[in-house]
Amino acid sequence: MWPDFVHTSTMSKSALVKVILLxxxxxxxxxxxxxxxxxxxxxxxxxxxxVEFLNKELEVDGQQVTLQIWDTAxxxxxxxxxxxxxxxxxxxxxxxxxDDGQSFRNLANWKKEFAYYADVKDPxxxxxxxxxxxxxxxxxxxxxxxxxxxxxxxxxxxxxETSAKDATNVASAFEEAVRRILALDxxxxxxxxxxxxDLKKKKEPQSPxxx
Length: 211
Ligand SMILES: Nc1nc2c(ncn2[C@@H]2O[C@H](COP(=O)(O)OP(=O)(O)OP(=O)(O)O)[C@@H](O)[C@H]2O)c(=O)[nH]1
Ligand SMILES: [Mg+2]
Fold this sequence. Notes:
The chain has helices spanning 29-38, 79-82, 101-105, 107-118, 144-153, 170-183; strands at 14-22, 51-60, 63-72, 91-97, 128-133, 159-161, 191-192. By secondary structure, it is α/β, with parallel strands linked by helices. The chain has one domain: P-loop containing nucleotide triphosphate hydrolases (Rossmann fold, 3-Layer(aba) Sandwich), CATH 3.40.50. A hairpin with a 2-residue loop joins strand 2 and strand 3 (63-72). It is a lipid-anchor. This is small monomeric GTPase. It is found in: Cell membrane; Cytoplasmic vesicle, Phagosome membrane.
């Protein structure tokens, strides 16, 4: 029960959504998260060990959203540290680097690993978004056509060519992930009570009690 000074007009519901970044070590997952959340880029970032997450508040199509971005360690030796965090993800961002053909060929393994540990029964109907990162580099090894074909063959997931370095398409990719999640049926269970209580708002005048 809310105390009587809390007026419903002072509360706003925010949806909490969890997206997880997966992909080979070095493709730029941490850089994408840092670019999006902090608008920063570090050209000498250390490999991630385990997982890290950051929150970002945003509004998509009039809906307030708390986006929780989970960044994982892509290196094989950290597999057991990252997989326990897959469960509960609303969207998975499968990331490869456009200058690293092997990271693209590994997307199928990442999808499989995610589906297994997140316990996703029907992966082709789960919201995956594919990111081809480092679009700023000159020596590209993966064509847009090959990447788009992979997406078509894998449930028709959206594909973005991004650059964490110069910010190309980074916000669009995360926002599309949120749109995909919000478009799914029955989001009611994700509406968490981050109800904002405006403590500065004056108490509503009480109607005189009658007895
Ligand atoms: N040119 C260019 N370099 C990038 C881009 N994104 C990341 N990098 C660089 O690529 C290297 C690896 O980036 P990270 O973000 O650490 O990669 P990661 O996927 O998080 O790697 P792990 O933590 O090992 O899984 C860093 O030196 C980054 O500066 C990009 O869009 N363009
Ligand atoms: Mg990292």
